[in-house]
Amino acid sequence: MTLKHENRKLSTRLAIVALAMFGFGFALVPFYNQICAALGVGSLVERGELPANSQIDYSRTVVVELDSNAHDLPWRFRPLARHVTVHPGELTTVEYEVVNVRGAPVTGQAVPSYGPQHAGEYFRKIECFCFKQQTLAAGESRRMPVTFVVDPRLPASVKTIALSYTFFEVPGKS
């Protein structure tokens, strides 16, 4: 074989490899999306799925009682309203107020809980301060919203849902 023939053969192989790599790059995007969806990753914040049935059920109401706690945390933490009455499927926003009473910055993470316990399956948070850690400067106060939908598939026997948030200090983050 001549050098010219070997160079042409090598160039053809390199062109095929380059085209294959280019095609593989395009194939990675949907593959990556599928892997992220299967593993539940790909977002910096977790936002539960929107309910499949977004119709508002005006035939009934549910009272959502709001509670707040700060576990060994130098914060005053409270909901601005003690309860709200919602129709299942209705988009609702409530606000909580938090004040750091320590003379130094403090970082906390809120953890939600529900009563009755199975009600959490029907409570879809769209926006929530509990999705990420909150750092408050010394003396800082902040209003934090929670936007949610009570899924219309909530059993009709459930008339009241208690939503409670407890803030825990994140060690080493202040």
Question: Any descriptors?
Answer:
single chain; 174 residues; alpha+beta; five-stranded mixed sheet; four-stranded antiparallel sheet; 1 helix; 9 strands; 39% strand
Structure description:
The protein has one helix spanning 3-39, and strands spanning 62-71, 75-79, 83-86, 91-100, 106-115, 123-128, 134-136, 141-150, 160-169. The model has no long low-confidence stretch (mean pLDDT 87). By secondary structure, it is α+β, with helices and mostly antiparallel strands. It is 21% helix and 39% strand. The strands form two sheets. The protein has a five-stranded mixed β-sheet with strand order 3-1-9-5-7, with no helix packed on it. It has a four-stranded antiparallel β-sheet with strand order 2-4-8-6, with no helix packed on it.
In short:
The chain is of the alpha+beta class. The protein has one helix at residues 3-39, and strands at residues 62-71, 75-79, 83-86, 91-100, 106-115, 123-128, 134-136, 141-150, 160-169.
